[in-house]
Write a structure and sequence with these properties.
This protein is mainly alpha-helical. Helix content is 74%, strand content 4%. The chain has 12 helices and 3 strands; from the N terminus they run H-H-H-H-H-H-H-H-E-E-H-H-E-H-H. The protein has a 3-stranded antiparallel β-sheet. Helix 1 runs antiparallel to helix 11 and helix 5 crosses helix 6. It starts with a helix and ends with a helix.
């Protein structure tokens, strides 16, 4: 029953986050805080009723690693504060998987794996559409980015080949699947980086009116950042107010993709299918 309740909380929160992210390009803090609070209270109540504090211990074992991972992704600017808080809030439902699968690593790791795969597919689809519409800009940016990345691409290819060979030689199905998944990830990461960065330069850096700014927006204009002491992590509400009071009418920002739908899809895959990569590899091999 605990697993069902937590899964319902998570799905409802992710649906709301998806709606607000598409509508306003923002995941409301209230959604993440509410999910975290309700999930925590539910776990504590169950621990008390059943007199089993291993339930709380299980929660903490998942909460702190995902908290650490979320902060790393936030401070390295892989995503914004809304995504960070949402992942932290999801840590409690992920501690109690709805269905136990045979081929799985653990629910949180399966979710992160699925999130990476769905995110890559989502980003690739977006990049393809933008590239078709702006082929000249894409080719120009890709050439510039590839210049300093050839050694990295070569190393990733060699490491991937070694992992594929090692996976082929090993007899353990689980280990082989894991090595193949790692090889694919290492192989495509540099290429995806070049593709996404190329598209980002001509389609995600935009000039918007100051009154359209939202907390967490990444400001590109170095002079504005210096003048208003705006962090690399994004603009804060009080800084937006100062900008509105100044004579600045428009500002250059880097716009991210709505990420809440990716969270929703990755979570649904995790609770109803387990680890997407391992299951696909199982079917193939």
């Amino acid at each position: 029953m605990l697993e069902i309740l937590l899964s319902i909380y998570a799905i409802l929160a992710l649906l709301l986050a998806t709606i607000t992210d598409f509508k306003n390009r923002e995941i409301l803090d209230s959604i993440s805080f509410t999910l975290l609070a309700i999930s925590s209270i539910t776990v504590i109540i169950y621990s008390i009723i059943l007199k089993d504090f291993n339930i709380t211990l299980t929660t903490l074992k998942v909460f702190f690693p995902l908290l650490f991972l979320s902060l790393i992704l936030y401070f390295t600017r892989q995503w914004g504060g809304g995504d960070t808080k949402l992942l932290i809030a999801l840590s409690i439902p992920l501690a109690f998987p709805l269905i136990k699968f045979d081929l799985t690593l653990s629910s949180p790791i399966d979710f992160i794996t699925n999130l990476a795969v769905v995110g890559a597919l989502y980003g690739t689809f977006f990049a393809i559409i933008k590239t078709i519409r702006h082929p000249k800009e894409f080719i120009k940016n890709a050439k510039e980015l590839t210049k300093g990345k050839k050694p990295t691409i070569l190393i990733s290819i060699l490491i991937s080949l070694l992992l594929f060979i090692l996976g082929y030689l090993l007899k353990s199905q689980f280990t082989t699947a894991l090595l193949y998944a790692s090889a694919i990830f290492i192989l495509i990461t540099p290429m995806l980086f070049i593709i996404f960065k190329s598209v980002e330069k001509f389609s995600m850096i935009k000039t918007i009116p100051v009154n359209k700014l939202t907390p967490g927006d990444w400001i590109i204009d170095k002079n504005i950042k210096s003048k208003f002491k705006i962090s690399e992590l994004g603009i804060e509400p009080e800084q937006i107010l100062k900008l509105k009071k100044s004579k600045t009418k428009s500002i250059l920002i880097k716009e991210g993709l709505p990420f809440a739908p990716i969270f929703l899809l990755a979570y649904l895959i995790t609770i109803f299918n387990g680890n997407l990569v391992l299951n696909i590899l199982k079917l193939i091999f």
